Amino acid sequence: MRLIMLGAPGAGKGTQAVILSERFNIPHISTGDIFRSNIKEGTELGKKAKEYIDKGLLVPDEITIGIVKDRLLQPDCRNGFILDGFPRTIPQAQYLDKALEDMGIMLDAVINIYVSDDEIVRRMSGRRVCPSCGMSYHTDYNPPGKNGECSGCGTAVVQREDDREETVIKRLQTYHAQTEPLIDYYEKQGKILTVTGRDKIEDTTGELFSSLDSFRQKMSS
Ligand code: AP5
Ligand code: MG
């Protein structure tokens, strides 16, 4: 299964991608996670990416595309993958189309998670992440374990630096200007499957799995 997760910052792409990745046993590739681990390790890539991320801007296409290119060639992607947060611009999508064509493979679906801007701001302010395994929590909707520890690995959860309210607002503007046009782009390819990001994570997952099932049946008939 080859999937893309599309949606505004904080729509729940990462949360749902982790669930899909376990269900289909395919790797979850989040460009945001790749940048954050490089920032943490202090690599050259991390230093460059941080300049843009902290301002709520996109990392330039030439940097981002190179990373995804290398990742998709890894052997674990042979049976499929979930791209989370890539593509985010039309040039990135055009690159991906060409790369998949060269590899002789096709996308199954582009899952677009819709959440209103107001709800996004609410969610982001409560988001906490595990710096070790990447698990995402929300102080109210999906709280971490006791003493604010990750229920998966026990590490203390933290707030992402780009989750400050003014940066979230900038990220939303960037999303509407540069990423939202991709809905149309993939709509024209008949690949878009839109689900509403509901108040409960499991409700969104339920809708996502049933829409994905009917979408695949429709595609194969
Ligand atoms: P990235 O990490 O991809 O950030 P993003 O798109 O802004 O998305 P998030 O990870 O913030 O949100 P999400 O949709 O994964 O939501 P989550 O599941 O965590 O990228 C970071 C930065 O890197 C970008 O700003 C950019 O600068 C750069 N970058 C990355 N890719 C790039 C690219 N391709 N090109 C250029 N630059 C790039 O959920 C959010 C919160 O809501 C959590 O607290 C969660 O618990 C909660 N939640 C989730 N679902 C629900 C629900 N149904 N109900 C209630 N709460 C929920
Ligand atoms: Mg994410």
UniProtKB/TrEMBL annotation:
The lineage of its organism: Bacteria, Bacillati, Bacillota, Clostridia, Eubacteriales. GO terms for molecular function: AMP kinase activity; ATP binding; zinc ion binding. GO terms for biological process: AMP salvage. It comes from the Bacteria. AMP binds at residues 31, 36, 57-59, 85-88, 92, 160, 171. NCBIfam families: adk, PRK00279.1-2, PRK00279.1-3, PRK14527.1. InterPro entries: Adenyl_kin_sub, Adenylat/UMP-CMP_kin, Adenylat_kinase_CS, Adenylate_kinase_lid-dom, P-loop_NTPase. Catalyzes the reversible transfer of the terminal phosphate group between ATP and AMP. Plays an important role in cellular energy homeostasis and in adenine nucleotide metabolism. PANTHER family: NUCLEOTIDE KINASE. Its EC number is 2.7.4.3. Pfam families: ADK, ADK_lid. This is Adenylate kinase.
